[in-house]
Amino acid sequence: MTVQQQTAGTALELKGVRKNFGNTQIIRGLDLAVREGxxxxxxxxxxxxxxxxxxxxxxxxxxxxxxxxxxxxxITGLPPYRINRMGMSxxxxxxxxxxxxSVYENLRCAVLWSQGHGxxxxxxxxxxRDVGQRxxxxxEQLGLQRRRDTLAGLLTYAEQRALEIGxxxxxxxxxxxxxxxxxxxxxHETERxxxxxxxxxxxxxLVMVEHDMSVVFGLADRISVLVYxxxxxxxxPTAIRENPRVQEAYLGTAMExxx
Length: 259
Prior knowledge:
Layout: H1 3-6, E1 10-21, E2 24-35, E3 39-43, H2 50-57, E4 65-70, E5 73-74, H3 80-85, E6 88-90, H4 103-114, H5 129-142, H6 157-170, E7 175-179, H7 187-200, E8 205-209, H8 213-219, E9 222-227, E10 230-235, H9 237-242, H10 244-258
Parallel strand pairs: 3-8, 3-9, 6-7, 7-8
Antiparallel strand pairs: 1-2, 1-4, 4-5, 9-10
Helix pairs in contact: 4-5, 4-6, 5-6, 6-7
């Protein structure tokens, strides 16, 4: 059986992934399989290794051991730009945008490489119609048309997070990683961003780290629970909510804190 046959229907697969910092084990033999087209949430207590897992998947830091595959292709050890060009993009906990560029210019920068346009001093960006058209499409998806020419640094926090999500999808990535997309938002802002995530993830595979349990259980098709660098359960939201081991390790405390 070929690798392609073994991983059919799987967008992202981690097998035996470990990450050590010196003698400290952060990720301890993590196994995870994310299906094509699903919305998959990773939850767990602080210090469980969620952001580290995202860093490993996206190539930001190297694995100590194990294998990571994207659509059946090995991406372990590849730099982030290579992984991005293979169809994966991610956002960060801390908003990562160009504050001194307009909303439109931020999106246009994100589109350039995906459309095959490398740096060339003789090219005028305004002449690249395909880039402009894609940036305008994403701008409309985000509902930020009226903020098109506003400097990104002048947006509200929720608008900046929406713009970062737009940057994440602008290049046409089929697998998107969102790290705490609703952190620091009011309930109204959260509801708006959740609806945006629901729309932009249609036809894509979404993997998200999120602490807000109402967001997790409202969006995710499946949930993986990460505790001390290991996945202790992966299942549908209802099964995760009722899992005694998950309740003991994390969920009960998280739901009480949220209430």
